[in-house]
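Quick one: structure tokens for this chain, please?
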Amino acid sequence: MLLEFVDHRRDPAAWAQSLDISREAIDLYLASDVLDLHVDSFIWTRVFGYDLTERHDRGLFNASFYSQVDFPRILEAQVTGATWVITTNPARVGPERRATFTENYARLREIFAGVSEQFAVVTSAAEYRAARAAGKHGAFIGVQGGNAFDATPEALASIPARSLLRVTVVHLTSSGLGATSSPMKLDKEAGLTDAGRAFVRGLNDKQIFVDLAHISRRGFWDAVEVADRSQPLLVTHTGVCGVHDHWRNLDDDQIKAIAKSGGTIGIMYEPTFLGDPKWGGRADRVVDHLLHVVKVAGEDFASLGSDWDGAIVTPRDMPTCLELPVLVDKMLKRGVKDQTIQKILGQNFLRVVEALRG
């Protein structure tokens, strides 16, 4: 199947005009690797049959909660790579979660196989670059919720070698692995369990990134303590407390710990985590959080981690992937260097993937 899309590379001036941004922003964007660390659109495929290969409009709620991404729009937006996520349903019992993950993994691979002329599933920076050389979007696969593997390190043996790029250890609920950052958790001081520590070590053994989005503060530091220090850590979709103090966000010490590991931090687009009203989010606020990471840790550690279609409300001046160049325009207006912008758009993430996987 060959998907149709508007190729803005043919008329970048028109794209700049349609978005009301500078031609400089469009040119820089089109000259960059653009990778997102966390795209959650597959959850709507599972729940409602949302067809990723079909071009959608903004849905029932003007791109709130869902319909922020699909394959044709990803191609039109020139998003050159992303981590497409399989999110674990915590209500399922352990063995059922494992079986469901196996089914969903096969289903997502099958969807990508159906558009293989334009998308390629990749597992390393080298494979991503090969996909790009062939004019394809490089699709990494990740898991949100380590309880997909039933909280036992032995379950990791069922994961095909290098098939997954990363696993978010916990999600919005605590599990047998450890505690979420959500204020709904019963034990406010809980961190990783013994099984969670073993799980982190098991991910290291398989060269699967340990993703510390959603984890409690104590769990974060537990993971830092037990993780292989030769492997970078990720926080794929978060905000930062230095801009907006929130239970979902990282403080400066946590930012520095990720940087010290050689990892990167993806900034998400949910307004309430970033400090804006739910339906009043602005792309400028995303830039605030990205630049705080740069201020605290340097330009090598900030990335994009939208959480598109993760039941979030996106900034209203950047509601879908099609408006992503707006972010570049905002950074240029603040005097951010071209090199720094390109690192944020994708180079930082590629550096981290290459460090672990080549």
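The longest strand covers residues 137-144.
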